[in-house]
Amino acid sequence: MNEAVPFLPEVAHQRAVFPDGLLLDSGATLAPLVVAYETYGTLDAARGNAVLVCHALTGDQYLAGRHPVTGRPGWWENIVGPGLPIDTDRFFVICANVLGGCMGSSGPREEMTDEEGNGLGRPYGTDFPSVTIRDMVRAQKRLVERLGITRLLAVIGGSMGGMQALQWAATYPEAVFACAPIATAAHHSAQNIAFHEVGRAAIHADPDWCGGAYWREGRLPAQGLSVARMVAHITYLSESALTRKFGRRLQGAKAVTFLEDVFAVESYLRHQGSTFIRRFDANSYLTITRAMDYFDLAAEFEGDLSRAFQGTPTRFFVASFSSDWLFPTAESRAITRALNRAAARTSFIEIASDKGHDAFLLDEPEFHAALGGFLRGAADAAGA
Amino acid sequence: MNEAVPFLPEVAHQRAVFPDGLLLDSGATLAPLVVAYETYGTLDAARGNAVLVCHALTGDQYLAGRHPVTGRPGWWENIVGPGLPIDTDRFFVICANVLGGCMGSSGPREEMTDEEGNGLGRPYGTDFPSVTIRDMVRAQKRLVERLGITRLLAVIGGSMGGMQALQWAATYPEAVFACAPIATAAHHSAQNIAFHEVGRAAIHADPDWCGGAYWREGRLPAQGLSVARMVAHITYLSESALTRKFGRRLQGAKAVTFLEDVFAVESYLRHQGSTFIRRFDANSYLTITRAMDYFDLAAEFEGDLSRAFQGTPTRFFVASFSSDWLFPTAESRAITRALNRAAARTSFIEIASDKGHDAFLLDEPEFHAALGGFLRGAADAAGA
């Protein structure tokens, strides 16, 4: 075992367990199904004020408050809370760790079970089945039902969370009053699959990956996972954001020495890589990136995305960020066009920002105002 | 030694040897200096028809004809040859392997020498000194002098080759009648440094890199170098080119099976990685990417790029490609503005292309016509 890299700490997450399990798109059944989740705010008596937030690739259910592993603030701390755009004084916010994740939901690092659901005393590892965005959404639906909620006031998510939001609206239209897919796409592009494959290749190349059985060998593919995070992180930022934040500055030196020069941007990326490995599981990364690659909502509907929303009762808020090149505005426009063809109630906004894809996580007042306004309007219309 | 990955084959390159060596920007002296090169066409009696082509990061001196290692056509076969834009019926074309490269010029895989220039029976490896784009250009200048050429009719290069072309014009203005920096920039951006660092991290993470001494251990950091190539290759293409070429097609299957699905774009990238390691040295990759990162031409001139070209006699042809996001048009415009401020004779063209950075290597008729026209005009003006 690499002493410098501790295994992910065991944390007692809030979990819902479904012994009968979940039939997956692959044909496999995962039993029991475990969904780890957090809630914020209070469910009203009519059970009409529930907002489901779907997290991105490396996010988790801890969107506000202190993160139990990193000790840092939640990833949407600036959006979810009392008086914030997703106002926990008014709404009951649910966030579930995605299927295949590593924060307590059924995933590669959880204990594998046999066909009767008996624990086998080892994690799934690479024996965890392939999952899809639709599988993730099905698991969330079970959780929402368990909480006694028939219709969600809203499903909201950015990036992969936006894929889930779209899938929710397509699969369970009657259960989604309002839907906000943010900085996302209705399918994963060739370029994005390519970037994912680089990350996977880096993990596979790490001898500490051990063909996925690092858990058995007491090892961690830390360097491979770190490289995967580094390349992904570049895609989350815009060129102008990198230039503004780092430019060609050197770390700890004024001029090039031709010895151990490190540019500030390199130091930043290395830091991103080395902190990531303390909170994320490599096999989860492989599983979830694959689920994103598989995502192609139109393919479920004979290639016509508008059919996914035909006759939908849901109202939509589509948002993109001008400098996002991972999920560029053109992808959000394509979603909006499909919604318009389906005659769905739709608003679309492109936020001017130089912060790239990460803008959906950052301080973007225009975005926050627009999302908050959409949600308040939906709540008023729904009587929530 | 990894049997599946042969070491780079030994090839007898044409070389110029300079026993007195080269004083580098780092302060180190490299002796002897060896510059491996190829020439195409015939030098005229006045020695006035010489065109120096500078190659990109992973290019080499074999720009036309059969490559001695890969057996494939040269990398600029469609531009350099009889009747082509760089017409070898009229011009004497020189292309040198860059300093730090791995096709015969002084570099990490060549034999290390002591201070008297005596061979030490081992390659430089990571003991090869840091080099800069200016060092590469100085080495080329020595070669050009050795060939008896005082003034080059033109210096032409794309990507890192364009950096060298700019450096040539700035350092040796009297020796450059015409200069064509293509798909390049006057400094390496934070985003580009970041992508390079991902590649380097992947190489460093490969246990077969052996701290750079893989040559001693009979090993090759094939997986790390392959990952480096994969991520770099994504940056050479545009999103639309990847979508057009591959889209979401699966390799060898019509529908997702959730078993061993491979998207066509992944298969392509893996192939790029696995062929690259048969022709490129990992320590060369580290050395040359660092040289690109260091490149900041304005920094030599108190931060004012126009001073690099003050009073220049050289005529310039600046070209960019609309979908190139590695060296976007904005970078070429910045070069052009500096040339304009220096009152240099300058033409700038942005070629509409969806092929990304790689467009400078591909079949782009408008680019070929413009470059050919520029070169013929320069030759006519120079009486060559």
UniProtKB/TrEMBL annotation, chains A, B:
Top EC class per UniProt?
transferase
Q: Which UniProt keywords apply?
A: Acyltransferase, Amino-acid biosynthesis, Cytoplasm, Methionine biosynthesis, Transferase
Q: In which pathway does it act?
A: Amino-acid biosynthesis; L-methionine biosynthesis via de novo pathway; O-acetyl-L-homoserine from L-homoserine: step 1/1
Q: Which InterPro entries match?
A: AB_hydrolase_1 (IPR000073), AB_hydrolase_fold (IPR029058), HAT_MetX-like (IPR008220)
Q: Which GO molecular function annotations are given, in alphabetical order?
A: homoserine O-acetyltransferase activity
Q: What is its main location?
A: cytoplasm
What Gene3D superfamilies does the entry give?
A: 1.10.1740.110, alpha/beta hydrolase (3.40.50.1820)
- Reaction catalysed by this chain? L-homoserine + acetyl-CoA = O-acetyl-L-homoserine + CoA
| NCBIfam families xref list | homoserO_Ac_trn, PRK00175.1
Q: Which HAMAP family match?
A: MetX_acyltransf
Family in the record: Belongs to the AB hydrolase superfamily. MetX family.
Q: What is this protein called?
A: Homoserine O-acetyltransferase
Phylogenetic placement of the source organism = Bacteria, Pseudomonadati, Pseudomonadota, Alphaproteobacteria, Acetobacterales
Q: Which gene encodes it?
A: metXA
